[in-house]
Design brief:
about 230 residues, mainly alpha, Rna Polymerase Sigma Factor, Chain: A, Arc Repressor Mutant, subunit A, about 70% helix, globular
């Protein structure tokens, strides 16, 4: 049975470096995807990713397992990213393009079932559409969606991480799902094979996002988004 994250963090605070290595291994990929997709800048994402872990390390002695470690970790990440974006908004800066993240293995699509050129092209087109739609979302909605997609946090935890009420967090996630689905549906078309694969993926859709989609009467959103998104580990 896997050790609890909170227990690992307490052990690390007591000097157990192996406990930290386990935590880092568990959370490295989804945390980086969250940061990279939120700030949309490879260089900044790399710096922020290191900053998040540096803060976890620096404050390890003060960690108290009153909430899940993932809630604590993503609150640190959220605050780092929002502070960076506020600073960036106050000065001229470059806008990252898709080529900055395309080669990063932690951001790549899961390999398709059959590596035919047609399916690879289909997945690449869908991923490009997904990225463009995600980047077009308002920051608060993109943040809520990425937290749901990457962190495994509950709606209550997402609200806590972002410092808003539960209904606000739910509303942000609902609007993000509506906009992403519209963008993907417009790109794929009603009869495309992408839609068929999205319906098949719906069975394994993430429970949290599925619940919000259901509450918003958005049939099929989560399947399409999971198909378009990055791998979960």
């Amino acid at each position: 049975m896997a050790e609890d994250d909170g227990e690992l963090m307490v052990r690390y605070a007591s000097g157990d470096l192996h406990a930290f290595a386990t935590l880092y291994s568990r959370h490295r990929a989804p945390l980086y995807r969250y940061v990279a997709r939120l700030v949309r800048d490879r260089e900044a994402a790399n710096d922020l990713f290191q900053d998040v872990w540096s803060r976890v390390i620096a404050h390890r002695a003060r960690y108290e397992p009153r909430a899940r470690f993932s809630t604590y970790l993503y609150r640190v990440a959220h605050n780092c990213c929002i502070d960076h974006l506020r600073r960036a908004a106050a000065r001229p800066g470059r806008v990252a393009d898709d080529s900055e993240t395309a080669e990063d293995p932690t951001l790549a699509l899961s390999a398709p079932d059959e590596e035919s050129p047609e399916k690879r092209f289909e997945c690449a087109e869908l991923l490009a559409c997904y990225r463009a739609a995600l980047e077009s979302l308002p920051l608060a909605q993109r943040d809520a969606f990425l937290l749901a997609e990457q962190s495994g946090l509950s709606l209550e935890e997402i609200a806590s991480v972002t410092g808003v009420g539960l209904e606000t967090a739910k509303s942000r996630l609902r609007y993000a799902l509506v906009k992403l689905r519209k963008a993907l549906a417009a790109r794929a078309g009603p009869e495309s094979r992408i839609e068929g694969r999205a319906r098949e993926a719906r069975r394994n859709a993430q429970p949290l996002v599925a619940a919000v989609a259901s509450a918003a009467s958005i049939e099929g959103d989560t399947g399409a988004l999971q198909l378009a998104g990055e791998p979960s580990s």
